[in-house]
Amino acid sequence: MCGIVGYIGSGKQEKILVDMLKHLDYRGYDSAGIAVIKQNQQNSLTCKIDVTKTKGKLNSLEQLLKNSNKIPKNKFLVKDDFNTEELQKQIETINELNEADDVNSTCGIGHTRWATHGEATTQNAHPHLSNNNEWAIVHNGIIENFQELKEELINNKFTFKSKTDSEIVVNLLQLNTDQDNKLPTITPLIETCKKLKGSYALAALNKNFKNTLFLARKKSPLYVAKSKKTIVVASDPICFAGKTKEYYSLNDNEFCLCTGNKIEFYNLKNEVIEKTAEKLENLNQTKTKTSYKHFMQKEINEIPDVLKNIVKRYSTNNYLDILDKVFIKKFNKVVLIGCGTAYHAGLIGARYLQDLARIDASTSVASEFRYANPIIDNKTLVILVSQSGETADTIAVCEEANKKGCTTLALTNVEYSTLAKLAKITMPLCAGTEIAVASTKAYVAQVAVLYLIASKLSNELLNKNINFLENLQKLSDQIIIPTKQDFITLVDEISKKQTAFFIGRDYDYITCEEASLKLKEITYINSNAYPAGELKHGFLALIDESSYLFVIATKRDLLEKTLNGAYEAKARGANLIFASQFELENEVKKDFKHILQLPKVDENLAPLSSIVAFQVLAYLVCLKRKLNPDKPRNLAKSVTVE
Ligand code: F6R
Description:
alpha/beta; 8-stranded antiparallel β-sheet; 7-stranded antiparallel β-sheet; 20 helices; binds fructose -6-phosphate
């Protein structure tokens, strides 16, 4: 949550910062802002910090910058849709165009916000300035002891313009600055961070040091890279694509002083430390919507290719080789961890482990598990499922599990992520960049890789002969992506509703949870999922003639029982929608207002194919409600705070 960038170099800083932020608006879009150092017009020997910020998405900031002539009005509109090569070309051209007329501006920082403390207003937008206007800061994370620190600062006569926790950081920087120091040092930032509890990625600039950036990291990602003439800083190295070939990743309690084109790293003791650069690989992915209207639509349509990609990578790499009999016999417990959609994938994963390999596995929500005093030790295998690999609670569980001697296995889509580095074993999800906030193709990839793991263990432990890669390959051709025409009346009806219900049993109940999450997060319909056997235990009280109840049934042996639940709801007036790979008798069909025919696939693989129809349904209802499926309100793609 929150994306931060920094830049030292020539060119139109404002434009470059906005272009870099464009890669990061998946991390939050409540507000956006930049700060650059400018020469004082009245006195060319001094500089000032020029802040431009506004509530709303990045294009509001861009508009503001254009209106104030800080970026060219007619050139290089930041599109919602771009690819890294194109972006690089734009930046190079802008640099050439502006180098001559913009020698004043040498460094800047930028921010895209997901509000934690203080509502989404311009005042609360980053960057924040210190009381003496000498420092500006952008922050991703949460300062847990900010109230206490704020009181201390107020006692020291500091005043505050925002309600954020971040503004205390910039004022602490002022407090820790030795005004006699004529050269930039990292000391004020280290001293400031020593007082902070919580998580942060920080980038700061000081008006007295024209081409300098000050960086710090604890529990929120931060990367820095340099080329001959520039230094770039970002929450995600995707921002460096096309600019550099390698980058550095800051670890917790590490600091960085960037001056000119020099980067120096420090530890908390203010000692210089050496760091090794990492290669910037697999980042030149195209982030265009191509012919699709939205990223969500594009990503759903990519699902068959994602499955093919998984098959390709898992058949040409030895990721699964570690999962042999000796390995799995070391453990008396397998725990799967995730948040939101990744948690749902984990639920399916535990069922796969149980069904296919007869391994007793359980799944927990990361934020619950970490505070539940879990009994885990060196006999526990902890599987952490995360698309981004940056989810704070999932990372915290991984850290704790590592400390307790567990074997940690990360399933992540971002191979350079914090989680990928932290876990003892990492397996890629191979879904390609997922931009839309609502996870679609990554969910299917998570379930698919969990299927591979469970099948491999089944072959090892139970001497089975599951051709799991072939099965997945076959499935990739069986998946059907429904079109608008398939859903036309259903979408009309659902889009007018305030509530919706989903019921299913076993795997289908988990699909119900995921389908319901997808619907609520992008349409804001209050949708809820229940196990079909639970109706009589309370939830039936909600049912009346206005209710729409989705019934998902992909398991033959549970079909009758699921239908019984559906009838109980129908008897109370519910409108039923049946979703299944099985055909109903004509007589039975009459009981259903709508029927969604799901693809006929191997029952074990149905969780992978049945969710697709509901992803499409949520997308279409969202459009009908005239909402933006890629950026639902109040949410962000990467949840880097607890
Ligand atoms: C919902 C969704 C979220 C994420 C969750 C975990 O569509 O995308 O529920 O699944 O925030 O994110 P990752 O997988 O990045 O850990």
